[in-house]
Specification:
There is one protein chain. The chain is α+β, with helices and mostly antiparallel strands. 28% of the residues lie in helices and 21% in strands. The protein has nine helices and 18 strands. The strands form six sheets. Strands 4-7-1-8 form a four-stranded antiparallel β-sheet, covered by helices on one side. Strands 14-15-9-18 form a four-stranded antiparallel β-sheet, with helices on both faces. A hairpin with a 3-residue loop joins strand 2 and strand 3 (80-81). The model has no long low-confidence stretch (mean pLDDT 86).
Length: 415
């Protein structure tokens, strides 16, 4: 029976628990789910040939094959146990705290941690190992695929709440028992880190624009922050500040005490018209929909996308944008991760430029009771990564990022 053991380090506070959210807990089911996510991310492109123009029938066939292979490898309620067993071993996680006690978190880190502040406890740091025991009949290809998934998971992944925003980032320290004796050692430089990601990701010779899942393909863009930080707090704070300054318009020309970059002017004006109308008592949702038949660009960061503003007279306004379908969420295609190179902490951004919504999907503006077509635009995220302006054409007052921290270090040079 083949056994591999992966040891991980918790890089940023990990918010994971069971029924009682005041008690942090590492859950095997959640760890297995994340391994499966990254397995799908690197597996799906293998069902197509290099440069293939994928037809709808071929896409459907590939999705069926992916589902069958995942059930066989990971197990399912219908098919029973998979080809391996997962077990937590050798946990060394001593520090438990809650969000409020995480010292020196500025507004940037709090922005990334929106929704968990004051509500959950976490593991602030520590290490744990996962043992994977394969069944006797498990083919060598399955062992190799899981090892590869563990590598990419340990290079880019995370666990728990707000894992897509940099919390719960984990780092693979070692991977022993790999086929052919190809054990893993953590990278000692950014260059080694980039190479390990490329090796785990595969050749990326297929376009993934129409992939209906988060999967690595030709358009996948992974950026590494230019510079490093002495601790995870500073890394999260800087990352959150950059994200906040790009997305937020602010108030009175200021965002968190700094000059606003005035990005997304059209989004700001769209909501301002709605708020002014409601505050003056003349808000007619149906009439307002006819005059403002659009969806904010920032919906490209994930759904639902909410707007709220209070009013001294009690005429508060909340607008909610969500898919008009049986599902109400679309996870952000932009993931953040904090990696650790030696004793330094470095932010990483992963952009899965796959299909944002199903074809002909419409977004539902709840308060207006109206559906609108929405054309996803990956340029909204690419401009953030490039440190560019995102504003109305010709808006001279808009400014990009001075530092452009993600603009230069691209893992995939052709992205």
């Amino acid at each position: 029976m083949t056994e591999i053991i992966a040891r991980f380090e918790i890089v940023t506070p990990l918010f994971m628990s069971g029924f009682d959210q005041s008690v942090p807990e590492l859950r095997l089911a959640s760890i297995k789910s994340e391994i499966a996510f990254w397995w799908r991310a690197i597996k799906f492109q293998s069902y197509f040939s290099a440069g293939q123009e994928i037809t709808p029938v071929e896409m459907h066939t590939a999705l069926d094959r992916l589902h069958q292979d995942e059930c066989a490898l990971f197990g399912s309620a219908r098919d029973g146990q998979g080809q391996f067993l997962l077990k937590l071993v050798d946990c060394n996680i001593d520090r438990k705290t809650d969000f409020q006690k995480l010292n020196k978190l500025n507004i940037g880190a709090k922005y990334l941690g929106y929704g968990i502040e004051g509500k959950r406890s976490c593991f602030e740091q520590g290490e744990f190992s996962v043992a994977i025991k394969f069944r006797k009949k498990a083919p060598e290809t399955s062992v190799a695929e899981i090892c590869r998934a563990m590598r990419i998971f340990g290079l880019l992944g995370g666990l728990g709440a707000r894992k897509r925003r940099g919390f719960g980032s984990i780092r693979l320290i070692s991977l022993t028992g790999s086929p052919g004796g190809h054990d893993f050692a953590p990278p000692s430089s950014i260059e080694q880190y980039q190479k390990q990601i490329r090796d785990a990701a595969g050749k990326r010779v297929v376009s993934g624009r129409d992939f209906p899942l988060s999967a690595i393909a030709a358009e996948t863009d992974i950026r590494i922050w230019a510079g490093d930080f002495p601790n995870w707090r500073d890394a999260l704070n800087a990352l959150g500040d950059e994200f906040l300054m790009y997305r937020s318009w602010g108030s009175g020309g200021m965002v968190a005490g700094r000059q606003s970059r005035k990005n997304f002017e059209s989004d700001h004006d769209w909501f301002k018209r709605a708020y002014c109308s409601a505050a003056n008592g003349g808000h007619n949702p149906d009439n307002w929909n006819q005059r403002n038949a659009r969806i904010p660009e920032r919906a490209n960061f994930g759904l639902p996308h909410n707007y709220f503003k209070s009013h001294p007279g009690g005429k508060n306004l909340k607008l909610e944008i969500k898919p008009n379908a049986d599902w109400e969420r679309r996870a952000s295609p932009l993931l953040f991760h904090i990696t650790k190179i030696g004793n330094k902490f470095v932010p990483v951004a992963i952009h899965f430029a796959n299909k944002f919504l199903p074809s002909r999907a419409r977004l539902h503006r709840v308060q207006g009771r109206t559906d609108f077509p929405f054309q996803a635009n990956s340029g909204v995220i690419r401009d953030f990564l490039d440190g560019s302006v995102r504003a109305a054409s010709g808006q001279a007052n808009s400014t990009g990022s001075e530092k452009k921290p993600f603009a230069t270090h691209k893992v995939f040079s052709q992205s």
